[in-house]
UniProtKB/TrEMBL annotation:
Molecular-function GO term, any one: ATP binding
Lineage: Bacteria, Pseudomonadati, Pseudomonadota, Gammaproteobacteria, Pasteurellales
Main location: cytoplasm
Record-linked NCBIfam families: argB
Protein name stated in the entry: Acetylglutamate kinase
Positions bearing the site annotation: Transition state stabilizer: K26, K237
Organism: Muribacter muris
Biological function: Catalyzes the ATP-dependent phosphorylation of N-acetyl-L-glutamate.
One Pfam entry name: AA_kinase
Regions annotated as coiled coil: none
Swiss-Prot/TrEMBL catalytic activity: N-acetyl-L-glutamate + ATP = N-acetyl-L-glutamyl 5-phosphate + ADP
Length: 283
C-alpha cells in the first residue's frame, strides 16, 4: 500500500502547543465509513505522533456490534444512547470491540499502535450502571488505572483502547466509548479531548447541517438535552466533554470524522470545524 507522509513544521503552527502533551482522540464506529478513510485517520495520528504529541486512541464500534448481533438474530435497544447489554450481547461486544475493531486499527498504525482493552491492567474498573435502570452488562467506570497507557506513551506508542471494562469480581462490562474516552482523558490529565463522529458536530436541528453550534458553554448543555436537541449517541458524547471540562480539561471538540484530515485540521486550527466546548479557565 502506498502511504503519504505529512510534513508539517510544528514550530510554525498551533500544533506546537501540543508537543509533549496528551490528546485523547475518540474514533466513533459510525465515522469508520471505509478502509480508505480509516487509513487516512491513522496516517494523521502517525504524523501527529512524529511531531511529539502523545496520542491516545479510544475507539467505538457500535455498527460492528450491531452487525454481529444481527448475524445471531438480535436487535439492540438503546436507552439514552446506551446499548442494553445482555449476556449474549456482551460476548459480541467483546469480540467486536476488543477483537476485530481494535486489531484492525492497530494494524494500520505501522507498528506504532499498541492495542489495549479496558480489562488489561484493570484500566477501566467498573460496576453495573444503574442510572437509567437495568441495562444489563453496561458498566459505570469507578476508577481508571492509566498505568499501561502511560507505559505505552513513554515508549512512543499510540495506545489503541477498546472500551470494555472489568469489575472487582472479574465481570466484563460494556462501556460507551465516549464516556470511557472522557474518563481516560481525565485520568491522563490530557490537554484536549476530540471525538470524531459521523456528523458535522452538534446541530440545533439534526436535519439542517447549517445549524452547527460551533461553541457552547457548559451551562447550555443540560437545557439542550432537556428540550430534545441533543439525543441518542450525542448524549454520552456531550456529557463526556462536560465531565472532562469540569475535571480540569480545557478544550473538548466534536468533529466530523467522515472528512479526511479532520483531526489534523482541528489541531492545526486552520479549517477548524465542528463543535468546541471550553473549560472554566479557558474562555
Ligand atoms: N443535536 C444533535 N446534533 C448532531 N447529532 C445528533 C444530535 N442529537 C443526536 N445526534 C445523533 O448523534 C449521532 C452521533 O452519535 P453516535 O451515533 O453514537 O456516533 P459515534 O459512533 O460517532 O459515537 C449523530 O449521527 C446523530 O444521529
Ligand atoms: C454501553 C454502550 O452503548 N456501549 C457501546 C460501545 C461501543 C461504542 O460506544 O461505539 P460508538 O462510539 O461507535 O458508538 C455499544 O455497545 O455500542
Amino acid at each position: 500500500m502506498q502511504t503519504t507522509q505529512l510534513t508539517i513544521q510544528p514550530q510554525s503552527t498551533r500544533l506546537a502547543q501540543y508537543t509533549g502533551k496528551t490528546i485523547v482522540v475518540k474514533y466513533g464506529g459510525n465515522a469508520m465509513i471505509n478502509d480508505t478513510l480509516k487509513q487516512a485517520v491513522m496516517q494523521d495520528l502517525l504524523a501527529l505522533n512524529r511531531l511529539g504529541i502523545r496520542l491516545v486512541l479510544v475507539h467505538g464500534g457500535g455498527p460492528e456490534i450491531s452487525q454481529g448481533l444481527k448475524q445471531i438474530g438480535k436487535e439492540s435497544q438503546f436507552i439514552q444512547g446506551l446499548r442494553v447489554t445482555d449476556r449474549e450481547t456482551i460476548e459480541i461486544v467483546l469480540q467486536m470491540l476488543a477483537g476485530k475493531v481494535n486489531k484492525q486499527l492497530v494494524a494500520l498504525l505501522q507498528g506504532k499502535g499498541v492495542g489495549l482493552s479496558g480489562i488489561d491492567g484493570a484500566m477501566l474498573q467498573c460496576q453495573k450502571c444503574t442510572i437509567h435502570g437495568d441495562l444489563g452488562f453496561v458498566g459505570e467506570i469507578v476508577k481508571v488505572d492509566p498505568t499501561l497507557v502511560k507505559l505505552a506513551l513513554e515508549s512512543g506508542f499510540i495506545p489503541v483502547i477498546s472500551t470494555v471494562g472489568v469489575s472487582s469480581e472479574g465481570e466484563i462490562y460494556n462501556i460507551n466509548a465516549d464516556t470511557a474516552a472522557s474518563q481516560i482523558a481525565i485520568a491522563l490529565d490530557a490537554a484536549k479531548l476530540v471525538s470524531m463522529t459521523d456528523i458535522a458536530g452538534l446541530l440545533r436541528d439534526q436535519q439542517d447541517p447549517h445549524s452547527l453550534i460551533t461553541s457552547l458553554n457548559l451551562n447550555e448543555v443540560q437545557p439542550l438535552i432537556d428540550n430534545g436537541v441533543i439525543q441518542g449517541g450525542m448524549i454520552p458524547k456531550i456529557q463526556g466533554c462536560v465531565d472532562f471540562l469540569t475535571n480540569g480539561g480545557e478544550e473538548a471538540s466534536i468533529i466530523d470524522g467522515r472528512i479526511a484530515h479532520a483531526i489534523f485540521n482541528e489541531l492545526l486550527g486552520e479549517e477548524r470545524c465542528g463543535t468546541t466546548l471550553y473549560g472554566a479557565n479557558c474562555q
